[in-house]
Amino acid sequence: MEGLNQTFRLAGRLMLLREFGKATFCHIQDGSGARLQAYVQRQVVGEEAFALFKKLDLGDIVGFEGTLFRTRTQELTLAVKKLTLLTKSLNPLPEKFHGLTDVETRYRQRYLDLMVNPQVREVFEKRSAIIRLVREFLEGRGFLEVETPMMQPIPGGATARPFITHHQALDMTLYLRIAPELYLKRLVVGGLERVYEINRNFRNEGLSIQHNPEFTMLEFYQAYATYEDLMILTEELIAHVAQNLLGSLKLAYQGQEIDLTPPWRRLDLRESLSEVGGIPREVVRDREALVALARKEGIALRPGEGYGRALTKLFDLFVEGELQQPTFVLGYPLETSPLSRKSDTDPEVVDRFELFIAGREIHRPGARPAPHRGRRHRH
Q1: How far apart are CA 355 and CA 362, in angstroms?
Q2: Are strands 265-268 and 327-330 parallel, antiparallel or unpaired?
Q3: Strand segments (E) across 91-213
Q4: Residues in Cβ contact with 333 at an 8 Å cutoff, skipping those fewer than 6 apart
Q5: I need a labelling partner for 361 at 20 to 30 A (CA). Which of 68, 84, 155, 330 fits?
């Protein structure tokens, strides 16, 4: 092989050691996750260096200099001539040969998870690629990326409990934002007709696989566009990301194939309660009967709340988790959508949609996610 006689200098983390008396095979891993085998002989590196090497632990970062060769099994290997300890790991890696499997440790010590589970690195890399592709798509459509305040005097744009802080110089209470909506809309008012922001939001509420107190959200606004235009834009955006990231519009998620090929299904909220949730149409259309059903299912209705809240909460219970393929849900009630445009054809609903994929809410105009909620299914 060309280059086998050249001298190479490599650095990486020790991930595997196999000792054979006066010689040792080891694997080192670099920042990309790639691993290379190295062969260290006492008679080549010298007594002092070999003694140092024998004291190393998995997790230590070392520098090697040597030439390449192939073993009897044709594995590419570095024959080490010089070695240097670059960084000492104070604690050896857990479960040395089998990776890190304890979920609690993986989440609390993510750096360990990255060291020993190569597939985790792919998640970080794909997330970075997704952000890059989103920017590429929106900027190609004339959208301008902006940053709006994260500390706000009024926690607006969403319904959630905020984190509270205090500005010493101004002697005033501020809130970590729960959504950038109000500031982005001010930019539209000021004449920036297409704006977007990819940034952090903070919500002082529960923890689950669907809810995190600190999370990244994309929010965009486009002047002179209807909500039908935004549905098409959303389809095209997600399809663009999937095609460029995966090379396909079909992906596997939790054992099920999701097809992102546009156009996606459009489903009326009230119709979904019958078509998907199994609630009789006569009950859905009867205000008193639907409110009674909501109370029977344990949905708390505050004073002034009624049919509209009952619709949306029953949807959460019986429909949301069943929407596996991409589905736009339309026809949200006016009383639960205070910042949305009233429909020209039905004054009881608004021009608003929410997108669901794999039983989860992916997108809603206005970005007003509700606090954490449970879900039950009717069988």
Answers
A1: 5
A2: parallel
A3: 144-145, 151-152, 164-167, 172-176, 194-202
A4: 269, 307, 308, 309, 311, 312, 348, 349, 350
A5: 155
Question: Domain containing 298 — which CATH number?
Answer: 3.30.930.10
136 occurs within a structural domain: no
Task: Please report the pLDDT score of residue 99 as a whole number.
Answer: 56
Tally helices (H) and strands (E) across the chain.
11, 17
| Domain encompassing residue 15 | 7-113
Pairing relation of β-strands 172-176 and 151-152? Answer: antiparallel
Higher pLDDT, 18 or 265: 265
Q: What is the pLDDT of residues 43-101, one digit of tens each?
A: 999 999 999 999 998 889 999 999 999 998 999 999 999 999 999 988 777 654 455 66
pLDDT tens for residues 98-157? 556 666 666 677 777 777 777 788 888 999 999 999 999 999 999 999 999 999 999 887
Residue with tokens 């004449």: 191
With respect to residue 325, please indicate whether it lies within any of the assigned structural domains.
yes
Paired tokens of 143: 């959208």
Token look-up 């344990």 returns 298
Query: What would the mean pLDDT of 284-298 be, rounded to a whole number?
Result: 92
Q: What is the distance between the alpha carbons of residues 60 and 93, in angstroms, rounded to a whole number? A: 9
| Percent of the chain with pLDDT strictly greater than 90 | 66
- Count Cβ atoms below 10 Å from residue 206 Cβ, excluding itself: 13
How many domains does the chain contain in total? 2
For residues 84-116, one letter each, b for 16 or more C-beta atoms within 10 angstroms of the residue's C-beta and e for the rest, the string is: eeeeeeeeebbeeeebbeeeeebeeeeebbbbb
Final residue belonging to a domain, choices 90, 113, 136: 113
CATH of the domain at 22: 2.40.50.140
Looking at residue 372, the DSSP 8-state letter turns out to be: P
Tell me which of 85, 113, 141 is where a domain ends: 113
**238 vs 355: CA distance, rounded Å:** 11
**Domain presence at residue 121:** no
| pLDDT tens digit sequence for 165-223 | 999 999 999 999 999 999 999 999 999 999 999 999 999 988 877 778 999 999 999 99
Task: Give the Cα separation of 261 and 108 in Å (integer).
Answer: 37
